Amino acid sequence: MDCYLVMSCLSRQQIPPIPKVLASLLHRNHCTKNNTYKLYSSNVVCLAKDLNVTVRNGPVIKNPDDKSPPHFTWQTPFGLFTQTNNITTFHFDFGKYIFRGRIGPPVPWGPNGEGPEGWIDKLPFIPLHWFVFSLRSPVIQYELLNVQTGHRIERTNGVVHMEKNWGNSFPKGWIWSQGVSSHDNISFALSGGLVSLGEITTTQFLIGYRNLAKNLNLNYRPGNAKFSATHNGCVGWFKIKVYGLLHEIHLSASADLSTFSDCLYGPEITGFRQACIESYDAIINITVFKREFLSLKKIDSQIIKLSALEFGGTYTCDKRCKKGES
């Protein structure tokens, strides 16, 4: 039996070399309940001229606003991705596999279209932007067909995390992690690394944590928090402390090295090349403290299993997926 995890659709429209448009399906073979296995990717690519993006069945003539619900179609010779009335539909042919399904309404990061960056995403000089469209959309239905064997998997449950990036290029080194606890309405997402502004390079992060049962809706970014982070891509762990005005978050993430993929494709200004590794078997430990006068009071502690953990660029082990200069 095969176990399948995630699909990503990426597109760039700058100068050569190719590929400029890429879709990846990450999967694990012979997945069992108590064991973990390495991630593999199946990829399909095409030229930028073969990508067609429409908004409300017409050409794209302006950037979207923050508040309006998305209504667009992303189409290539190998696949289709649509967003209409808060329902996502997709159908992709990866050669050996066909993956299609429908996803329900989003659970947004914040009100009025706010994403992890908050007001920062309005700054024109930021080299890369990160937006989370949905923290935990419900799966309506999905189907995955192994064309070679005829084996078919059909399901009607699960949760889906959806996000996007845009800008000039990814950082020289970065970490991304995300996870949900379906039964407890707990979720988190974080991204960060080496951010270059002109001649200055700093380490910055964006992080959000949700625990509805404890009324915790925490969002931190440069400007409202300080960060202290360490990482080791050769061991497969990452730790960060977030110092906010009213709260602190201590988060550690780790995954067995055997569960990580080989280098996966990541975007550069010239196109896509192998730039990062991922595991979807990470164990996340999150502790939240509330500031009380001169002390800290622990108000939440959670373990979120089967989370995503990605090391990219120079943050991979021995820089084996180091990005070229953009």
Automatic annotation (TrEMBL):
GO terms for molecular function: tocopherol cyclase activity. It holds the Pfam family Tocopherol_cycl. It comes from the Eukaryota. PANTHER family: PTHR35309, TOCOPHEROL CYCLASE. This is Uncharacterized protein.
